[in-house]
């Protein structure tokens, strides 16, 4: 991927969308290129990071964890997306960890550099951008609140059903999950154990609701509300 492609990715984000090419050139000149291997962390929960990151390629997982290394996945970051805005805005420690699900290329933009480029005290280019970011973060809070609600009020099967509903696509007339998941990844996404997920998936196969082909899950019919 060349610099013009990266500039196009920046211009497609709400943070940099209204910036002229000459400003984007300055932003890229100050960027730090990071290659992150699968399983490595970009930043970790509790760490102070005064920067935002552009995901150029690869996929990252945002999660929280405890001292026993049990994880709960909050969201994913894909190419063309920014991450790290919360700590960038308030200067506080990271609320979650960002781990590479596959080899990734990122561009890191330090807050002090952007303050200098934009000439603003908070490192944001304009009030319009500030409002757009706040609206996007509000949407993020709503999604995390919905996840917390399902974690608190639904049983494990109910959480699996919601996850499948969110990720189901139809390709060539076949309903399937748009991403391949390991049983551990499903467990991390719904806040359960791999053993419990394995048992429920086995029962869904036996009930002829799904079939599993090399980590790909195909839905033979929509999952019932109760099972």
UniProtKB/TrEMBL annotation:
Keyword Transcription regulation: yes
Keywords, alphabetical: DNA-binding, Transcription, Transcription regulation
Pfam family, one: cNMP_binding
Record domain Cyclic nucleotide-binding: where: 15-119
GO CC terms, sorted: cytosol
CDD domains in UniProt: CAP_ED (cd00038)
Position of the signal peptide: none
GO molecular function: DNA binding; DNA-binding transcription factor activity
Protein name: CRP-like cAMP-binding protein
Species annotation: Vogesella indigofera (Pseudomonas indigofera)
């Amino acid at each position: 991927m060349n610099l013009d492609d990266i500039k196009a990715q920046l211009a497609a984000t709400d943070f940099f969308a209204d910036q002229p090419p000459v400003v984007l050139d300055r932003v890229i000149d100050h960027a730090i290129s990071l290659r992150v291997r699968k399983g490595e962390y970009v930043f970790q929960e509790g760490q102070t990071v005064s920067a935002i990151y552009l995901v150029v390629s690869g996929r990252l997982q945002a999660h929280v964890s405890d001292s026993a290394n049990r994880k709960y996945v909050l969201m994913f970051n894909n190419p063309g997306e920014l991450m790290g805005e919360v700590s960038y805005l308030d200067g506080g420690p990271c609320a979650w960890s960002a781990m590479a699900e596959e080899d990734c290329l990122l561009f890191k933009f330090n807050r002090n550099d952007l303050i200098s480029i934009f000439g603003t005290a908070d490192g944001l280019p304009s009030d319009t951008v500030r409002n757009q970011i706040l609206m996007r973060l509000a949407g993020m809070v709503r999604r995390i609140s919905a996840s917390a609600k399902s974690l608190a009020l639904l049983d494990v099967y109910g959480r699996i059903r919601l996850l499948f509903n969110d990720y189901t696509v139809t390709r060539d007339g076949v309903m399937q999950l748009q991403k391949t998941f390991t049983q551990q990844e499903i467990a991390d996404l719904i806040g359960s154990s791999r053993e419990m997920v394995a048992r429920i998936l086995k029962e869904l196969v036996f009930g002829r609701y799904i079939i599993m082909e090399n980590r790909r899950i195909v839905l033979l019919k929509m999952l019932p509300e109760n099972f």
